[in-house]
Fold OstA-like protein.
Amino acid sequence: MRQTFVILNKLKTLFFILSIVAFNSLLNAQSKKQIQIEYAGKLTIDEENYPGAKILTRDDAEQVHIEHSGTNLWCDKAIHYSKENFIEAYGNVILKQGDTINMTSNYIEYSGITEFAFASGSVILKDPNSTISSDTLYFDRTKEEAFYKSGGTVVKDSSGTITSRIGRYFMSQKKYQFVEDVVLVSEESTINSDYFDFYSDTGYAYLFGPSTITTETSKTYCEKGFYDTENKVGYALKKARIEYDNRIIEGDSLYFDNNTSFASASNNIKVTDTINRSIVKGHYAEVFKDKDSLFITKRALAITLQEQDSVYIHADKIMVTGKPEERIIKAYYNAKIFKTDLSGKADSIHSDQKTGITKLINLPTRASSDKFAVKRRPILWNIESQMTGDTIHLLSNKETEKIDSLLVFENAFIISKDTISQNGYNQISGKRLVGLFNDENQLKQVDVTKNAESIFYARNDKQELIGIDKSKSGSITILFDNGDIDEYTRYNQIDGNLYPESQFPENEKILKGFDWREEERPRSVEDLFKDDPPLVLPKIKGLDDYIPQEQFFNIDLKDRLSASKKIYKFKIPEKNNLLLYTNEFDNNKWYKNGLKVLNNKEIAPNGKNNAVSIIGTGNKDGHILQQVSEKEGVFKFSIWLKGSGSIRIRFQEAGGDYTNYETLDIELTHSWEQYEIESEKDTDGNGLRCVISNIQTIDNVYLWGAELIKTSSSKSTEKAKLVVKKPILKKQ
């Protein structure tokens, strides 16, 4: 018993000590937070209209001056509720916090308990880095955050002016977060984005959602990106695209420097020349706009449209230079060319679009130690003919864009396999070759000049072998018919014989320099890459996905505002709607397919706004949806509907296999009713879509007040349901 008594006394003593400490702490805290009136020209009391308050007004000398915890406020008139530690300030209001914050407005509400201010009427908040302008602004001194939700403007001297519907300023981080209709305008560029994080001290901007950066010379699009507004450099990810006058650059990752009009791209690159109807592809590229040059490698491929067909050039590296009307394509190392009726191969291929000349060139190499080795030369295939030489030129008609002739310089050699014998080859060699093409891009005539030698398998009309013709002459002219030799004429013949096949020496069946290379011939676009080493693309780390900040009016702030014991005149949002343009269904944020939005004048459930209607436009089920980036949690989607027809609303995965989380089938009525579904979002890494679907041409649907709320992080047991809510319409 004595031991119990001692313990109780000790507990009482401890409780007494803790009570004193808590009481003193409370007194100190309250004394530190009490609003102080530094100056007032006149003090009056009006208990009828302002119970428990003092009315302070300015005089001719100066404004009312109020101080609280290092923050000073000046105004023409103030209502001071000393018991609630609350102030309302009117007229030419100025709020200053040290040397960092200077805010002016027509009206301010401020609580000394919560250190929270609400300002309205021509609000301007300045700090050393930027200026915020808005009609209403919320300022939380405790968290050092400012927030607007009905449109605002931020001005930063060196970076320009930023406007958005929603804006939030994290003062300690010098970070802005803008949402919806974000536009940054500077001298050099204009940026449009849906979600935009901006650091005022560095000028760094992070873009999320469909975004564009427009300058005098370029337009960059991405759905995730970074831009240094000070140094005018950045990079773009996710559907990245840059337009430079007549070029469009696309890739998984794009770096750009707007000071030098330079861009580089990595992985799955496509560069489109809109003037010359050409495309260059690869997996690493550099573009120098001012120099009109493009360099691309890693499975580089140049595609040029020619006479309603495409010419493909592939090499280890491809460079495109020159102004649009004077483009030159240079393909280096293991270069190949392919067209449906023509293909070739060389160390390098040069194509000049101004002159219409395409050159196949082999680079000089050390002589082989094997004196019997055949030198690898540029090669060209057309139908059944193979042509080689030290250099090959293809000449195109610039007006018709058709290949009309070819030239082979030095060591010209043309081979075509005999159509019947297994090991027989028609061959012509000489110093120089000139070939002419017909309208179908087939060789129709070949002239071989100087030291011409030939072997022909001569056949009659029945394709019976007459003999093997071998001769030497000054030159030879050959006429082709559908790829086969139809006729040949020798000039200044030196010798020649027609041998029966049985008497033709085996060791004379091929001419010097013979090199049949049919296995190298590209017969498709895919064949251009068959000799390439395996392609390993670098992994692009890039930027993290957009993570929405916690709501400004969160539970903590609402509890603090309630603790002030003074009702603010401004309305604290009860819900945080994740959907944008909740009543503007014609906005692009609402993706539409198979339906049309009509701007009908229909009174909405609130009795004030005009609702819109949608009708189906095709055979497919019409649908309208909006996507949000939230990836997990429990969500509630609600919308007011009326009209005629059978439709449905649903939650759906935004990507992947588009999982349907919850669906509600609805039979519409002619009166407004609010429909609601609630479901847990799977942790699948993709966002969420709110869908209104199954809309046919016979349906007429009125809709209003779409709302998506994140309710909790644990699974709800409620299923899709009809919430029986009838609107109370008031006369406008």
Q: What stands out?
A: Confidence is low (pLDDT under 50) at residues 1-32, 713-724, 726-732. Residues 468 and 503 are 9 Å apart (CA to CA).
